[in-house]
Amino acid sequence: MKKGSLIVLSLVLSVSTIVEAGANRKNSETIISGNSSSLDMRAENLLTAHEKSLAKQWMLKETDWVKYKQLMSGPRGVWSPGLDPITALGVSETDQKERKRYAELWIKIESRRAELELAFEVERQLAAKKILGDKLLVKNTQWIKDWEKNRAEITTQVLFFADIDCKKECKEKFAQVYASAGRSTRLDIYFVNTSSASEIGKWASYMKIPPEVVKSRAVTLNFDEGESSRMGVNLSDLPQVRVVDLKTGKTTVAHQ
């Protein structure tokens, strides 16, 4: 074969490779961008019954789950193994409308998770008090020493009294109290007019209280079982805040 023919053949192959790569890239972008008309027709056959069930649990379409599987089989699965489906789809999305949809789904799922965890923590603390009393759940010498040390470092107790229905009205006041609570402060929230841990969980989630903060007992969620009366709280004028100096026992009324 002549040298000129080899050059022409080489150019043809190069152009062909570039065109093919461009087509593959376009197909990949289509999967991410949300133009899923072809996926709509194929999703039924691409997913198992279990995968379809998982998609429903995450409030996702079946086509979303197909995209999620494809994303996690590529670089995203290496960068972020174990990443939840909605976040994986959202951070890889190129279409603004679809990205917004994923963001709203994430907020709904995360809010519900926080509500349930906070509600369970309320019930867990009540159960521990009922069954164990003042006994510690785990008999661990070092854990006890650390717990006593942390307890000794708490010098101030802030009691926040609120009606369970007080959300928008309480949000600014609670945000101020929460922001001002330092490491030496324990924040105890007492709820009147409720006997439902689920309602307390929703209130705490609305106020954006992290479940891990409640689990560590830096913030506690409590039913009002006479504490408001002991602190002289006017239940017709909520929310109200009391600040207790744990060293002197002195209680002050925070300004509204």
Distance between the termini: 93 Å
What is the helical fraction, as a range of percent? 55-70%
Number of strands: 5
Order of helices and strands: HHHHHHHHEHEHHEHEE
| Count of spatially separate domains | 2
**Mean pLDDT reading:** 79
Give Rg in angstroms. 28 Å
Q: Structural class of the secondary structure composition?
A: alpha/beta
CATH class of the largest domain: Alpha Beta
| CATH superfamily caption of the largest domain | Glutaredoxin
By CATH, the architecture of the largest domain is named 3-Layer(aba) Sandwich
Major beta sheet, strand line-up: 3-2-1-4-5
Low-confidence stretches: 1-31
Envelope shape: elongated
* CATH fold category name of the largest domain: Glutaredoxin
Strand content: 5-15%
Helices and strands, with pairings:
Blueprint (H helix, E strand, L loop, with lengths): L2 H31 L3 H10 L2 H9 L4 H11 L2 H5 L5 H8 L3 H37 L8 H13 L2 E8 L4 H13 L4 E8 L4 H10 L4 H5 L3 E5 L3 H4 L9 E6 L5 E3 L3
Parallel strand pairs: 1-2, 2-3
Antiparallel strand pairs: 1-4, 4-5
Helix pairs in contact: 4-6, 6-7, 7-10
Question: Could you explain the architecture of this structure?
Answer:
The N terminus is likely disordered. This protein has a 5-stranded mixed sheet. α7 packs across α10. It is elongated, with a radius of gyration of 28 Å. 61% of the residues lie in helices and 12% in strands. The protein contains 12 helices and 5 strands. It folds into 2 domains: 92 residues, no CATH class; 119 residues, 3-Layer(aba) Sandwich (Glutaredoxin), CATH 3.40.30. It is α/β, with parallel strands linked by helices and 256 residues long.
